[in-house]
Amino acid sequence: MTDNSPVDIQLSVTADGWPDAASLERLAAVAVAATFAELEIQADGRKELSILFADDEAIRQVNERWRGIDKPTNVLSFPAAGGPLAPVLGDIALAFETVSREAGLEGKPFDHHLNHLIVHGLLHILGYDHRSDEEADEMEAIEIRILERLAIPDPYGMMKHDE
């Protein structure tokens, strides 16, 4: 992470298949920076975010333990105690096989999909959700604007056109 960034990203790579740690750190750093910029967040001191790059089985276990859902998912996020801008922001966990499969099925570059999921997870940590249609619309609009900053096409555009 660069010294001028307000967020220290702690990576843990526990599964095969992921890009190398330096590439993952760069990718995560730009996703976090774009999210903070779009939301106009001025951090009052350095923040810490942990990102786990795991496999489907590890994420399945976490998903079952914390959400009662016995299947893998692409991304999970866990805000830390103390509010969305506490010194420790929280944890994001990603499942390689699911992320890779989704990118392929949706015809997206892997890095684009991974960036989107990091942004999505971070937005959850920052207090956004998609439980209602209104919340989903707001969160998707923010994600689209953040990804635009990264020159990544609207991830929901293809799905909306296919409906």
Described by the principal axes of the CA atoms, the overall outline is globular
The average pLDDT is: 92
Beta-strand percent range = 15-25%
Helix content: 40-55%
Low-confidence stretches: none
Give the SSE order as H and E letters: EHEHEEHHHH
C-alpha-based Rg, rounded = 15 Å
Number of strands: 4
How do the strands of the widest beta sheet line up side by side?
A: 1-2-4-3
Quickly describe the structure.
The protein has 163 residues and is of the alpha/beta class. The chain contains 6 helices and 4 strands; from the N terminus they run βαβαββαααα.
Descriptive notes:
Helix content is 48%, strand content 17%. The chain is an alpha/beta fold and 163 residues long. A four-stranded mixed sheet has the order 1-2-4-3, sandwiched between helices. Helix 1 crosses helix 4, helix 3 packs across helix 4 and helix 4 packs across helix 5. The radius of gyration is 15 Å and the shape is globular.
